[in-house]
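SUBJECT: A protein chain and its fold
Encoding: whole-number codes for local backbone shapes
Chain under study, with its fold:
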Amino acid sequence: MKIAIVTDSTSYLPQEIVDKYNITVVPIEVVFNTKTYREDIDITTSQFYDLLQESPELPSTAQPSIGEMMNIYDKLAKEGYDTVISIHLASTISGFVNNLKSAAQTIDNINVVVYDSQITVRLMGYLAQEAARMAQENKPLDDIIARLDTLRDSIGESFVVDDLKNLVKGGRLSNTSAVIGTVLNIKPLLEFDNDSHKIVAYDKVRSMKKAKLKAEEKLAIAMDQATHPLRLLVIDADDPKAGDRWAGELHEKYPHVTLDRSYFGPVIGAHLGKGAIAIAWIRDFDKS
């Protein structure tokens, strides 16, 4: 069995990982007014946030067309692959996964397994990376899917955002009433709910400092309860200095834990806004 791995651009995988594991990354589009940009192809992350500051209108996003995905799967079939694991952003924030699952039933020249990451950003990228590593080692499909399930179940996260207007406008914040109408300078903390897998606000505080402390409290509980090594991730929205500072502080607290840095690119940044920051964790796939 020859297995290909496909994911979308919100995985924010470094190019060296994409090349090393031969991962196909499909760009998602971000739209300002009537102009459309393919993430990381037509617009860089820094260019996006500049436009976000200048634009009077909030941007929107557009998933790849089913025709484009069919062409990608067909190309992989012609390259000799008999199976594709297509790993994409959570079905609770995009209809892309469910649309793909319906379309995959019509494909007869390659077996397409559409996998709901139930998350996005580099956390989803980790899933694609591990699946691709196992595929290169010729691991069976069932083993890869089981490994993805194990990693996905270990994921936790805490997002701090400055501005909720696009999340609210897009309907991607499940419990809007928990944070709307609050006083100035409230920092809501968001997570993907473990049961519904929707984005929810689980707390709110009055400063970024307090928000980070709350997020770290959640991380500390996860670290204490984990029966396996965790890998940490700090993610920023066009504020790498703030991200680096937080990463440095966490490294001092957890010096023996692998800690990575990543970013919210255009598509996710369109919903979270500039200045968002997050910590996240996952079972360390390099250690267990």
About this structure: The domain at 156-283 is CATH 3.30.1180.10 (Hypothetical Protein Tm841; Chain: A;domain 3). The chain has two domains: 3-28+63-153, 156-283. The two ends are 25 Å apart (CA to CA).
